[in-house]
Amino acid sequence: MVSVEALATPIESGWVARLGAAVRQEFRAEVLVPAVADPILGSPGCAVPGCVRSSRYAGLCPAHLGRWRKAGRPDRHGWVKTADPEVMGYRPLHSCLVPDCGFGQHRYRLCYRHSHAWDKAGRPAVDRWKPDVAGTPAAVCAIPGCALWAELDAGWCHSHHRRWRLRGCPSAAEFIAYCASYGEDRFDLRPLAPQLRLEIGYALQCRVDANRTRTTPRSIKPLLDHLVASGAESLLERPLAEWLAGLPAAASVNTPRAFLGYAIECLLDLRDGTGWDSEYQRDVWRLRRLGVSGHDGAKLDFTAVHPVWLRELAKRWCRWRMSCGVGLGQLRSDRLALVRLSQFTPGLASSSGPDALDRAALEAYLARLAVEIPHPKTRSAEIGCVTGFLHAVRQHRWASLPAEAQLYPSDQPRRDETPAPRAIPEFVMGQLESPANLDRISDPRIRLLVEVLIRTGLRIGDATRLALDCLVRDPQGAVYLRYRNHKMRRDAVVPIDDELTAMIQTQQERTRQRFPTAAVLLPRSSANPDGRLPIPTATFHLQLGQWLETCGVTDELGQPAYVTAHQFRHTAATRWINHEVPQEVVRRLLDHTSHTMTAVYARLADTTIREQWERAQKINIRGEPVDITVDGPLADGEWMKQNLARAKMALPNGYCGLPLQKSCPHANACLTCPLFITTAEFLPQHRKQLDDTRALISRAQTDGHTRLAEMNRTVETNLLTIIATLETDQRDCRCAAADSETCCGKESSDAP
Ligand code: SF4
Ligand SMILES: [Zn+2]
Ligand SMILES: [Zn+2]
Ligand SMILES: [Zn+2]
Ligand SMILES: [Zn+2]
């Protein structure tokens, strides 16, 4: 396999200069010594408190490792506490034993001159020997931290002079750096060809800047050795596949392979430049180069779209879609739809122009598609992509299509009218929500995610990416979860109960302890040195599956139950609807823009509410059995009583109907709840609600229910205030009513 990208452009002469300019000074060094505990290039510090070295094995630096072994390998934790932290290069060197002499020791623990003088004097007893001391010399040793007198005119003390000679008399700066990092692991790039050395330096620099993956000298040493042996001048002289195929066993493990691929990617990015200018003409777009963040390695590959004229149109369409803000997921579907269009339309791939797209061709395409993709919903989405493509080509005159080159609504497959309910049956939910089973989730992040999904119905991708400071309070002190609705690209809030609040607070603590600078509530545990990245949804899916298996969760028939993360969302919605939370409120709780989606749940509820209610009586939403008789007249009475209890709370859009929010502390906070109020579009509801409330009050008064009447008076007053405010606002408001949720900023409790 040959990578087209790697061979596409010949390496031009200006390239090395450009590379040189891109590599920062510290990564241009021939020998690169990472700082101790550097999160990317280094290793954690030695476990001995006060030791300045990096750990190498078992949490100890080589010096302490040696001492610990010499001490007979005692219990390491205890030993570490008592060990002398000083290591070579940091322990002061001993001076000559003659009082006031500051030269280093040479022989007999005396300096060079005094050792000779002592020999000459016939080695007398030291306390009776009083030699001359040569006054104070001009300089002390130039190695920082060494206090010995300099000798032999290179500026070093006796010992450092010897070591300097052994190193081949390097420059003073180099020698000082060498001493300071003595014993530390290092990237030794000296044997590499000059350009290759720069390239590796650049790749290391990119790794540091990306701040994700640890790359220590040891981990890529086999790779560097191989590069030296290969005699290569540049990584770009061979495609990645060829490099990988030639790696020796020692270098053919994950880290060096990944580093090699990464280095080549970084270099290609630098060489070919980023942005549309360079990327558009390619047939494989690297989204990273187009500024699409968060999808490091993602590509859009158009090579399978044939022939070239269709590929050019496909690229043009995708670029236009991207500039309209269409997300990566959709773009991938778009691309795939066009690949299949080119494969499934007879003769298209070998055609010379858009004339080939006539009605006959499109019908043949539809027929083939129906065979290849039997599922109507999937096929319909695919046909939708192609329809949009043809439409855009015609609308923007990118090419002259035959007049009949379009698809119509009647070309779409028929779809089932009512989608099957996707909520998790309460029978299964009862098992999932049992405290014993919840306690079996060992990872607290997963446990919290499960609770969040059950209680708020958030999408899993929104829940994993919750910010660390995701809790907000309204003026009444009621708590909301603030999240980013990634699908709709907007911020949203959902009310939460005290229990969930407490769980989130505990997690905030946990996260802050492990990652003091983290911005996310649930950080991923690997390749994430600063806690910037959230736990991947894949981790959740995996652990959810394992948990279901460990708990042996079954359906009513005793079969193992299969549950997906997204089903929790349908479950939350269904529960709300079945507890008669008004559709409008559910829509806002789920942060749906249109009513269509929410209406699906409601329609379901129309026919099943009574059954659902009866089932809810047997097992309530927390899985606890409820002790009432279900059969007989009592059941009807109970049912009515429950409805009545809810009807008492007449509020703007019905009533505060969140029975799941058992511990919501502020019933009256509903009136300031951002989910409820103050956009003018709801005025009719508010007015009608006012009438209803008043009717309720007078009925309550006639029946002598003073308490009920009183409660609803407060409601009446609040409604009057709301209506009055909205009516005034409506006159000032100049925003389009369509975006009323953010209109005028008049929502009473916008997140602080
Ligand atoms: S007060 Fe009512 S509407 Fe407001 S958050 Fe609590 S339950 Fe929801
Ligand atoms: Zn140490
Ligand atoms: Zn001396
Ligand atoms: Zn010295
Ligand atoms: Zn859904």
TrEMBL record:
| Keyword Methyltransferase listed | no
Q: Name one GO molecular function term.
A: DNA binding
> What region holds the Tyr recombinase domain?
423-614
PROSITE patterns in alphabetical order: TYR_RECOMBINASE (PS51898)
Please give the InterPro entries that the UniProt record associates with this protein: DNA_brk_join_enz, Integrase-like_cat_sf, Integrase_catalytic, Tyrosine_recombinase_XerCD
Provide one Gene Ontology biological process annotation.
Answer: DNA recombination
Listed Pfam families: Phage_integrase
Q: Which UniProt keywords apply?
A: DNA recombination, DNA-binding
For whether the record's keyword set contains DNA-binding, the answer is yes
Similarity field: Belongs to the 'phage' integrase family.
What is the protein name for this chain?
A: Transposase
Gene source species: Mycolicibacterium agri
